[in-house]
Write a structure and sequence with these properties.
This protein has 172 residues and is an all-alpha fold. It has six helices and no strands. The protein has one domain.
């Protein structure tokens, strides 16, 4: 039971990280934040920059120029919804980072910030699912199948990585 709970916590962390990274890519803003700069410059793995990642997916799905334009328009139209959520997550992170630095643990305050972060993550998930649904509507049935397979391969890689670290999950 404890292993399942720990694995679920890691899975949520990975999902949240992916969601945050996806939002940061979608925003594409200029920022002094080194994390934004690193993502924009593709310094997370093999060419995982915003444009390289989108290009890789576009190539693998064999998207037409019209589909690429439609998807870019979807992403652009959602930026106003994503940006404040990313900013809220950053603020929550700053608040959590500051808590306890005086050597005193204030559980009630940590819970308040954690609950706020959970609500923000919930909103991020809604936006992500809306974007995904709109993008899938642009794809052909064959492209949808391939995109689903790509996502399953990605999820399997996460599962395998967790299993390698000793955090086995029930998924296989």
């Amino acid at each position: 039971m404890k292993t399942k709970l720990l694995a679920a916590a890691f899975a949520v962390t990975f999902a949240a990280t992916g969601l945050f990274a996806g939002a940061a890519y979608a925003i594409g803003q200029n920022s002094d934040n080194p994390m934004f700069q690193a993502m924009q410059q593709g310094r997370f793995g093999r060419g995982f920059g915003r444009h390289n990642f989108r290009g890789m997916i576009a190539r693998e799905l064999n998207l037409t120029a019209e589909q690429k334009a439609q998807i870019e328009q979807i992403i652009e139209s959602e930026k106003p919804n994503i940006k404040p959520l990313v900013q809220q997550l950053a603020e929550h992170r700053r608040q959590l980072k500051a808590l306890g630095t005086d050597g005193n643990f204030n559980e009630a305050q940590v819970r308040v910030v954690a609950q706020q972060q959970g609500q923000t993550m919930s909103e991020m998930i809604v936006v992500k699912e809306r974007i995904q649904s709109r993008i899938f509507a642009v794809l052909t049935p064959e492209q949808r199948t391939k995109a689903t397979q790509m996502r399953e391969r990605f999820e399997q890689r996460i599962h395998d990585g967790l299993a390698e670290q000793g955090f086995a999950t029930d998924k296989k």
